[in-house]
Every structure is written in structure tokens, then in C-alpha cells.
Amino acid sequence: MIAESQLRADIVEVGRRLYARGYTASNDGNISVRLDAGRLLMTPTSVCKGFMTAEMMCITDLDGRKLAGDRDPSSEMQMHLEVYRRRPDVQAVVHAHPPIATGFAVAGIPLDRAVLAEVVCTLGSVPIAEYATPSTKELPEAVGQYVQAHDGMLLANHGALTLGKDLFSAYYKMETIEHFANISLVARLLGGERLLSREEVFRLQDLRGRYGIAAPAPICADPAPGGAAADCQVVQAPSAPGQRLVPDYEAFPGDLAALVARRPHAPGSVPADQEIRLTYGELTALIEDAVKNLK
Ligand SMILES: [Zn+2]
Description:
binds zinc ion
């Protein structure tokens, strides 16, 4: 077991890294780690994670009662407690607002496409927990739906949450999510990801076993009816290699009128003042077209 003094120093170090990398601003974010079967060491509320000291931390029990510390525990303590209650294997929890991943969370786009082999092997998919008001009991409930099967998730219109078998493992998953979000964003600006095939995804899943990569749930290609958030990690992968799930640019002639003409309910021209609803795929194609024209 790691000494309490070392865990306090580790939380200070992880807080410093989160702040230095711009994953938190001001007093955002929170970090916790299990001290033993019944106690947690946690960051206090209202401190900048970049400038913490070891003495600032709080000790609570698993019901959130403060056992030690001059300051009050994090305002997101209930979210941390929910994770520890549902995942006995988890030793540490990190919450931050890394800007690119949080951008995906704000846009309502989960990081669940089969893009990077290492991410598929380790995190699997990064779903979005439904929006809940921070610090209320709604947030632990929203997170609770995904925590059984995932070690990392986005929080809608809020940030990201990662879990690990130790503090640095939870922190590195936060780095992986932000890195993955960065790469996904660039790939989408460049015309969209070419996805790994389902066959490759299941080959990568086999590597988890071979290399002893711990994952809370297996990967599945399609969500089960009613949602499989609690059972498996849904990774979007086409059945043929290199295929895209998002439409290719070439699939659309590239101007709005042509796009609209493809819609069954809107043949021909559309009056200038009429509302037009576009699917995500159509909007993506329009943005891609605009980016192409800028070059
Ligand atoms: Zn937050």
C-alpha cells in the first residue's frame, strides 16, 4: 500500500500537470484516491489545482463524511463517491475540463469511433454522460450509467472523467482522451477519419488479453436495444476496412442547393426564408466543402 504522504504528494503533482496542460482553469477539476477500504483522500473545494500543497487535502469516508482536513472536500465529491461505490477495482478518479475533449462534450459528439489502435485497446470508447447540473446528485446518476463499462467518459456540456487502478493511471487516461480528441478534431477538419474495420477492432480487443490490459468491459460494435452503456464499450467501426461512417465529401456535390435537392421532402429550390434542417452528415459535408474552398 502506498503511504498517505506519497499519495498527498502525487495528488499535488497530478493537479500541477492538469493545470500546466490547460486541462483546468481557475479552481476547476478535482482528484481523489483510495487511502484504504473505507477512506478517500481528495482535493478540497475552491483551490487552483496548479498551486495545491499536500496539507490541503481532505479525508472522507465512502459516504462523503469529512474525517480530516481544514478545508471542505470537492464540490463534485458525490461523483467520485459514485465511482468508488460502483467500481471496487478503481483506486483513483480524476475530473478536469480539457478543452478539445470538452468541446466534443459540448457539441454532443462522443469519442467512440475506431480511429487509433492504442485507444481502442485501452479505453475502448469514450461515451458522453448526459448533462447534469454540477455538484447536484444528478451528476453521479448520469455518470453511474457509464462507469461500469468505461474508464473514461465525457460529461455533456462540462468536461471529462477518468478512473484508474492508481492515480497516475487515471491521470494518463485524461491525457489520452484529450490527445484522442485533438487527433479526431484535426482528422475531421481534414475531411474525416478513415476508420478501422470491425475485424481489426476485435483483433485489438484480443490484444488486451495478450498484453494484460485491464478493461472493465468488452468492446461491442453495436449498442444492444435499449442501450448497452452498462455492458460493453460501443466502438463505431465499419464492416469493411478504410470505410467511413461519415459521408465522403464526394458523396455530395458540395453546394447547399444540391444537398437540399437530395432531401426527399424538399425537391427543387427552397424559398430564402424557409428553415432547412440538415442531418449531422450533411452539415459535416457543408463544413468540409467550406474548408476546401478556403484552401
Ligand atoms: Zn467540472
